[in-house]
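BUG: 3D viewer hangs when loading the predicted structure for this chain

Environment: internal workstation, default settings.
Expected: structure renders.
Actual: progress bar stalls at 90%.

Input used:
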Amino acid sequence: MKAWGVPGYTETRELGSGASGRVVLAVHDGTGTPVAVKYLSDRLRSDPAFVQGFRAEARLLGGLRSPYVVGLYEYVEAPDGAAIVMELVDGIALRELLKQSGQTGPEAALVVLKGSLLGLAAAHRAGVVHRDYKPENVLVAADGSSKLVDFGIATDHGATPGVAGTPAYMAPEQWQGRPASPAADVYAATATFFECLTGRKPYPGQNFAELALQHVEAPVPESEAPEPVRPLIRRGLAKRPEERPEDAEAFVAELEAVACSAYGPDWEEHGQRKLAALAALLPLLFPSAGGSPATATAFATTSLWAPGRRGWLGTGVALVLGLLVVLTQAAATDRTGGAAALSSFATTSAAPPTGGPAPSGTASGSPSASASPGASGSPSASPSASVSASAGASPGPGSSGTAVPPGPQPTPAPPTTPPPSPSPSPGVKVRSVSVTSFRQSDFTAAQVSLAVDASGPATVRLEWFSSDARGTLGASEGSMSFPSSTAATARTLTFRGGGCYWGVRATTTPAAGNGAAVQQFLIRRCEIR
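Structure tokens produced before the viewer hung:
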């Protein structure tokens, strides 16, 4: 059956997709105006929380009139689907530029920071905190101008929606679940600015707990940035929100003073030219180029240190548990002071490589690229009334219907089962089998990796289950067998049951000394309220 489309628009191609939706390039039939349409996943339309969050995102975009934020044309709800129709920006994500070049140089980094801060300033004036500023959500147009996209988990200033965001860019107060404030967006913008300057994130933590501790306690790494811009790094990454600029607009004033003093009155022109040159190296990623779509939702697998390590952790664990889901492990290997494995949905939507700029009046004059299709980690609270709003010059008549959660994505194909491995050699001894990674990768899929300690070739049997109870594997969802030599290879498991807990069990032939490895976690659909 053909997927639902917004009436009055002809879809050209897909720009990007994520766990909860997709963004497509389309043309308004009446005017020929190119637009970006963000569709809500069919799988999420029955979830009121996701519907409310998707509707809130459209309402927020409709209220922001800034050349530095992607513009809303209309929000459409109907019995068969929901979509946000946005202005199309012919640009690429800052993340792609950093992948290509490693770093941008000081003047270009300052241009990126200023453009997206001006987008944040529009939100802050409206009483909204973005909460997920990162390179994926900053778009660079062909002329070097930059714009902010993706308000999937934005919330009201002062609200306490819980721990949410992208770990590498979250302010200390975000980790602690404190009320949302513009100072948290200033922190995330500065972390991205640092990455543009140095080619790496401010803190190198390899898991959720390490990042939390570093963002809360580690010194600001200002010495790694060029000396002229260190005051901006020091101010923007201050541990206490009251020590940072109070909002994005205040930070722009500080940025301009530092930039002019360090790089002269033409710094912005020079920086914009540098960004344009970097963007020109990636022509196939622009919407106008017709490149391949890309997935755009990030997840994090984390390890939480054992309680008692540093006084802060006891409080941090209680706060982070609002976001994390605990994995149980039945055949746990002995580890002194060992860490409990955890899997979490740690971010929201990520801008498609061709997504997201601003409304009419953009400083660059370029068309705008759209926001990303990723999932909202913590949908913003909003009234349940449906929205059919327009911002700027709408390309066509508005529509109405009913809302659904952020962005659709095709159901992943069932995992392919490798051919059975040959019978184990006589005398092979399997000392242990363990689950090294198990996390949700989509709303019907998870990824798992194993480790097998054996003296020779063995066969691994992996089974997966869904259940409504923690500690009980429940109904079988599938199984596969493969050689122990490939156990570390990540495998995608498809879950079609309705349980809130997903689990796996791994056994070997010959039998492992520890019998089996079992893990289980609570899925996001049941975690998000």
